[in-house]
Amino acid sequence: MKKLTIAILLLLFGLILSACGNSNASESMKSANTETEKDTFTYESEIGPVEVPKNPERIVALTNGPNVLALDGKIVGIDEWTNANPLFTDKLKEVEIVSEVNLEKIIELEPDLIIAGSHMQNLDKLGDIAPTVVYTWGKLDYLTQQIEIGKLLNKEKEATEWVDDFKERTATAGEKIRAKIGEDATVSVIESGGKEMYVFGNNYARGTEILYQAMGLKMPDIVKEKALESGVYTISLELIPDFAGDYVILSKNPDVDNSFLETDSWKNIPAVKNDHVFEINTKASTYSDPITLEYLLEIFEKSFLQ
Predict the structure, then answer these.
(1) Where in or outside the cell (predicted)?
(2) Has this prediction a pTM greater than 0.85?
């Protein structure tokens, strides 16, 4: 009987230990799950919900890199075009250049978030590497796009505050500029392309969003007809005078032939004669993120008002 009693007690003790172990394991799993929930959230992307880290530490930005940089996002991989932009040189030191076709290189970077364009290849494979959020270029206006990046990076407040402040400052600048040049004065944004030129509508970077949307400046009727809907319109060198407004923002590409600037056709344009041509660097003007917009806003205010 004594041996039986001891055996029963040992069995009960074992069951109690087992129950405690299961309970502790359950609590540990629950705690781990809770911790995971704290570290991630569901971002409603344009192709559906994506579980993303709240504070991403290793972002591969195949698109919208400048928007991420404006919010001090921690980028480890960037597209070649953003990397070539002189405005971002300091911010992209030691950041790898990547593309959606070089999956091995992206894997090596161990990203915890990937941002890609809807037109890109290998979107499914990118999603296997890390949570991947996709954007379609031009689907959102330039300010809403920044707020969306803010939501993605858990920095919506910072993004929204910048947008509100930028709207106020550009509206004020626009009022001052229109008061100086006249409400009916027209502005063209033209870019040098070597053998051909480009004229822009109101949403194709090069400061067009600032000039036409935020400041309310007018574009020539022919620019409105040809470039407003498409965003950009290609013209020959001979047609520059037809598309030049009272003021011309010349997006000058230092890597192409700019000999047109020495031709009589260019020199006889009224805006050129009146010293109403303001140059911007093409390489630093091809995005519509806060860093680029602040850079261009300063140029426009000085050019028009001083």
Answers:
(1) Cell membrane
(2) yes
